[in-house]
Amino acid sequence: MRGIGAKSMAVAAVVVAISACTTTNGGTASSPSTMPAMGTSQTKAAGLRAGLNNLLREHVYLAGAATGAALAGRDAEFKAAAAALDANSVAVAGAIGSVYGAGAEQAFLPLWRRHIGFVVDYTVGVATNDRGKQDRAVNDLIGYTQDFGAFLQSANPNLPKAVVADLVKHHVVTLKAVIDAQGTKDPVKAFTAIRAAAEHMQMIADPLAEAIVKQFPDRFRG
Amino acid sequence: MRYVVPLAAVAVWLFADLATADAPTVAIQLFQFAPSPVAVEAGARVTWTNRDDIEHTVTAGEPDRRTGRFDLRLPGPGASESVTFTERGVYPYFCDRHRSMRGEIRVN
Ligand SMILES: [Cu+2]
Fold first, then answer.
1. Residue A156 lies in a domain
2. Residue A215: how many other CB atoms lie within 10 Å
3. How far is A173 from chain B (nearest CA, A)?
4. Is residue A97, in this structure, part of any structural domain at all?
5. What is the pLDDT of residues B15-49, one digit of tens each?
6. Beta-ladder partners of B72
7. By three-state DSSP, how is residue A212 classified?
8. Most Cβ neighbours (<10 Å): which of A49, A105, A192, B107?
9. Please, are residues B56 and B26 in contact by the beta-carbon 8 Å criterion?
10. ipTM for the assembly
């Protein structure tokens, strides 16, 4: 447990450093006396929330970049986007590990990668106009939401499985809209959809951060 | 008298150790088998209990090399199944629903 504590401290330190930079940049125009509440954005809890929101939004944009390149037949770009997406997956698992330990991190990463595999299946289904493959991928993704919900509920009793599953289901639906638009070569629709999909991630990141802080109030105090 | 307490403590520890080795339990929680590996004596009955709100399996072997020795289904939280290991050897196992979940029983 000592190792986990050190690691989470390190992550928290990075997160705090990032949020400190942000507030410093944003605050240079004002004098300190006019910003009595400046410290509130530098709390560990705020850092956790910002960090999770960044990671999960990045997940959507990189997933959209990968599926867009795949559907347009830009192979080198697809591979690069898929690699970046996987680096993001590793970072998401690292965030889980910083709170729940190395075992949880190792268990989470393949679970998270799995939904990306199903998204790839769906994209291949769209590319090849294979309705059966698309339907199977959607079914797999919907089934997956239950597993994902079960994982987070086991990690944190403040995250009920059904609620998490429903939020992840909406992530699947919003990402599917991006892929469908990319498949019909409608860039306006695709980019509108990707903004909606990215925005929805806050619906997952915020409650996740809130539940973690509620579970470990001492670790996120101050 | 000086040694009474330490000896008693050792006796309790030994007894406890033998007791758990006789009926070892593995929890399935947060998509992990814990503890793992588990070392037991031949004839031990190992019990797995699911603590996750999702089905897990305890399937003998590895995903691409199943041994068929056991394949337990633990559909939800609280579900529990056991296997008696009569022969010495190393028994890897995995969850067939989440194949990155791996565990191992070592029978001495
Ligand atoms: Cu499993």
1. yes
2. 16
3. 22
4. yes
5. 444 334 568 999 999 999 999 999 999 999 999 99
6. B58
7. helix
8. A49
9. no
10. 0.79
Secondary structure (H, E, C), chain B: CCCHHHHHHHHHHHHHHHHHHHCCEEEEECCEEECCCEEECCCEEEEEEECCCCCEEEEEEECCEEEEEEEEEECCCCCEEEEEECCCEEEEEECCCCCCCEEEEEEC
How close B53 gets to chain A, by Cα (Å)? 5
Residue B93 CB contacts under 8 Å (≥ 6 apart), including other chains: B33, B58, B59, B60, B61, B70, B102, B103, B104, B105
Interface test with B, best of A4, A118, A151 (most B CBs within 10 A): A151
Closest CA to B42 of B60, B27, B61, B21: B21
Cβ–Cβ contacts within 10 Å for residue A105, how many?
A: 20
In this complex, do B29 and A154 lie within 8 Å of one another by their Cβ atoms? yes
Count how many domains chain A has: 1
Give the orientation angle of helix A102-127 with respect to helix A131-155, to 10 degrees.
160
Burial of B69 (0-12, 13-18, 19+ CB in 10 A): middle
Q: Which residues contact B73 (CB under 8 A, 6 or more apart)?
A: B55, B57, B79, B81
User: Which DSSP category does A43 fall into?
Assistant: S
Domains observed in chain B:
23-107 (2.60.40.420)
For residue A222, what pLDDT is reported? 72
Cβ–Cβ under 8 Å, residues A103 and B103: no
Whether residue A35 is contained in a domain is answered as: no
C-alpha B55 to ligand 1 mean position (Å): 6
A106, A107, A146 member nearest B54 (Cβ): A146
- A32, part of any domain: no
* Dihedral over Cα of B25, A97, A159, A150: its sign: negative
pLDDT tens column, A123-165:
999 999 999 999 999 999 999 999 999 999 999 999 999 999 9
Distances A138 to A118, A125, B99 between C-alpha atoms, Å:
8, 10, 20
pTM: 0.81
